[in-house]
Amino acid sequence: MTFDLTILGSNSATPAYGRNQTSQVLNIDNKLYLIDCGEGTQLQLNRYGIKSSRIKHIFISHLHGDHYLGLVGLLSSMHLNGRREELSIYGPGPLKEIIEIHLRYSETILRYPLHFIPLVDDKERLIMENEQVRVYSFPLDHRISCTGFRFVEQPPLAKINTKVCDKLDIPAHLFSEIKRGADFIDTKGQIHENADLTFPPKVARSYAYCSDTINSGSYHQYIKKVDLLYHEATFLHEMESRAKETYHTTALEAAMVAKKVGAKKLLIGHFSARYRDLDPLLTECRSIFPNSYLALEGRLFHIEN
User: Which of 40-44, 201-205, 209-213 has the lowest mean pLDDT?
Assistant: First the structure.
């Protein structure tokens, strides 16, 4: 099953040096999930050949403009392009009013149903679930209310051991139940345990998104052992005092978080416009957590089993 992340924007407050403001698309089994929607996101979708009509769910972490100011424009374009399918938006409660004000004063009645799910930043919550994935929100520690998101693949089914099942002459219509853990009772009443009929399934994959936050440690419990961790790294560690003042994280701190929570791979982003060259941030990160990468525009990261 596909589990890929495409970076649309990697900068913090303002675009600079060809880097746009924060936005990502997660592709799970060819279903698209948009994470944050900074200014220019729809242009980035076009640039990388991603059809907005395929996006069914949008997750907004908080109400600083570099994380949501592209949203109303995207919603409007979906309307003008004839979208009819329902769109779900998960974000801070006031975001609903912001969207409604824009629509009201532009006298726009969307052609498609818009379903808004307000987020609360008090604890971890399951906010969405379908056949492919469960999505959790969890509180981050920023200057305003802010949530992170964790996407967890639904547990894969076991694989049929065809050699054993064919030998037992198990009817094919029972395979779906066996994949889900059922034993098999043959015509003589003998029970054949599931473990003998199947191969263990692959481990469910996970992706955690930590947008703007100070490294307080309060959120570490929600991102333990994720396969891929995105964590903001706005500054080099020489600017630690500025990071704390603005409730942001340094590259070194992001690496320390990844190491502490046991993440397999780390992506850093939300870069300050003061940095044209990002290699020093990556070098700082890799000094603590070698499996670190820059979350740059257009890059695709495959989340492995």
Answer: 201-205
Most confident of 35-44, 151-160, 191-200: 35-44
**Which of 172, 199, 226 is where one domain is finished?**
199
3-state secondary structure the chain: CCEEEEEEECECCCCECCECECEEEEEECCEEEEEEECCCHHHHHHHCCCCHHHEEEEECCCCCHHHCCCHHHHHHHHHHCCCCCCEEEEEECHHHHHHHHHHHHCCCCCCCCEEEEEECCCCCEEEEECCCEEEEEEECCCCCCCEEEEEEECCCCCEECHHHHHHCCCCHHHHHHHHCCCCEECCCCCEECHHHHEECCCCCCEEEEECCCCCCCCCHHHCCCCCEEEEECCECHHHHHHHHHCCCCEHHHHHHHHHHHCCCEEEEECECCCCCCCHHHHHHHHCCCCCEEECCCCCEEECCC
Give me the number of domains the chain comprises: 2
Asked whether residue 105 falls in the same domain as residue 212, the answer is: yes
Q: Are residues 91 and 116 in the same domain?
A: yes
Measured in whole angstroms, the distance separating CA 206 from the mean position of its chain's CA atoms is: 9
| Same domain, residue pair 174 and 39 | no
Q: What is the mean pLDDT of the chain?
A: 95
* Confidence at residue 180, expressed as pLDDT on a 0 to 100 scale: 81
Q: Does pTM surpass 0.85?
A: yes
Q: What angle do CA 262, 5, 226 make, to 5 degrees?
A: 15
Which residues have a catalytic role annotated?
66
